[in-house]
Amino acid sequence: MEAAVLVDQVERSLSRRFKELEETAQYNQVKVIKAFQAHRVRDTHFHASSGYGYGDVGRDTLEAVYADIFGAEEGLVRSQIVSGTHAIASCLFAILRPGDHLLSAVGPPYDTLVRAIGRDNPGVGTLIERGIIYEEAELHDQKPDINNIRSKITSQTKMVLIQRSRGYSLRPAVDLNTIRSITETVHSQNPNTIVMVDNCYGEFVLTEEPTICGVDLMAGSLIKNPGGGLAPSGGYIVGRSHLVSQVADYITAPGLGKELGASLGQNRLMYQGLFMAPHTVMQALKGAVLTSAVFGHLGLKVMPQWDEERSDIVQAVILNDAEQVRKFCQIVQQSSPVDSDLRLEYADMPGYQDKVIMAAGTFVQGSSIELSCDAPMRPPYAAFLQGGLTYEHVRFVVEQLINGLIINKGGSL
Ligand SMILES: *Cc1c(COP(=O)(O)O)cnc(C)c1O
Q: Which helix (H) or strand (E) holds 317?
């Protein structure tokens, strides 16, 4: 069957699922508009500040808007935060002290954080080298194991880290009910333990965010969901005021905190991106659902299934073969609006343990709210596809993938 015909057929069976995604986007869009209105966002907030950045009302208002949308006391939203890893690691390094216990509640965290923690190689500057005691609660059947988590909380446990998204693993993204029960369990064992969520890829996927589950601190990247494809760089941190202040003092210097940091003319794109984000995330989710449905139909293992509840925008397609993964990523790259003629290979990347291959023919370098696809070079050789500023782009890529991969288009392998 011709790819376009097959995709058309599958797409028609997805209309109810698409409707649900549209309803979530509608809800979130109104939430964002109301927050802009409550803080009286105006044109002057888009003006650039320079130098120290004292009194940058646009920057401060944006942080208040973020706090509102994410249901938090305070926000820190900066283009000087260079990536998601920087945002999350800043929280860990700002708050943890020698002798403190850090527990990752959902098995190993994202590759770049494993590196910053120093789990496998406690080199200079890592958390472990600084005397932080790090532990992981293993998953049970790929799901967080509440009893196991409970048993690992001690009086020394300063922080519990929950990574919401699957990252580069085949466990499902953690749903909000589970985040709530982990948080309640942790706080009932030790009310002083800070529960922190790595919310990368999770923003606006649902109508609520993890902060409503009693989480104390949360961080993410602006070149993923909340930047809406427009923010040119940055990260955000939201949570309890005293914690966000501590992180701000760490990122700048004690005593300087949130007061400094020139926005250098990026405010408008950060506001506009946030405004676009609910819609953009919906485009990405529709694309992920289509990808899942098509390749599931063709007999490949996909995670999550098209009709499964999602808590992030990542779609894994398991190919069981490094060469097929390379081909998959190559086709995504070839079908991009930018850098479409690059030839991709697996390569070492700063912070990653295995070689990775990354397709990102994006306007903002490495942006993964734009359609992108990465894969670490390790079994079971899965491609992790995420993003898509327009559903139409994802649909085009899916058709190119059907044509380019060695799969039996009749419906099975
Ligand atoms: C992308 C990601 C990170 C790291 O973000 P970078 O911007 O790539 O540094 C951390 N955790 C998760 C779950 C992610 O998806």
A: strand 315-318
